[in-house]
């Protein structure tokens, strides 16, 4: 039998909803928005945007569906699911202190309903038609803030093509990002016909607010001398030869409070592969880290970084480690592999030997080797003085974290990772299993596979949400 030291638990991180009021905090994102409003409501720039303007692309005759959806977002909604978590939605202006408005039908673009009815390549015909509409919409880009693209189920034969590895959602996100147009894909099943309109309202309103330039919340802890980088790779494989065509490297840089949301992507020339996993040369890793550092310094001129934490899902090879230290010679470097797949499970016992009715506490971590720990980002937590388990059933699996370089304590790393699981602004949940450094990076890598060429300039993540 193998014995381990006792486990420890991280306190649930708090979210901050005001730059002026340090007491505007809550662990619950919806409760915080209702009590204090969004973080950016009193900041320069976005606060002067009194109305968020929506433009839309949709099938002919479907304008009323988008109009009704925006009307719902402006109205109050009551939860019919997740009642132990979901809060009543009072309307967009009550939450975000701004109006939401759909432009008139003449400003929007409609496409033929039977666009792909008899097409042999529906994904090609549908994507080309929508891209043409996006180009038309781009001519009035100063007149709107967010683009809604409605994809009804009658077009579903054009949503994917397995042989080509085509995904319409990812393709459209990549295209609109190249135009720098914040876009919300509206699906019939998840947005129009979903039974709980309160869930739809919360999720869609938060995403729309962020895509218009707003910040709904931040982590309450902040260290201006620390940056966190999420690193991922998108390996494009030739469908005919099954050999790699090119590797796109995605690096996203966050402040320690979970914000930042800018990334760079470029094609790497020097890399090796093991199975499906690519690994950069020392030169390429140094290059991507230097670009990441420049991205951070451009956002914070004059600031000196004392610590850089780098997350990725695959191991750090020797050349990659050396490349990181080459890029940051006078900075503390922490290299962490965060693995989702692990055989480890844990069962909670109530004292002395009775199996609990609940899973282990969220934030529990257990050291299993000198440089390895297990961290439960899913699990039991206290919400409104009640026990709450977001997943509702099943035994949660921990993240397996391996430290390849650095001297910070496991408590420090776990506290940062647990906080970053609360920073996904693309839904209404209280946390994700993965920290946003890796959740977003994976999304970016998937999207960038859709385009063979992508500019090396920085992009805001709001274009890919």
TrEMBL record:
CDD domains: Piwi_piwi-like_ProArk. It comes from the Bacteria. This is Piwi domain-containing protein. InterPro entries: RNaseH-like_sf, RNaseH_sf. GO terms for molecular function: nucleic acid binding.
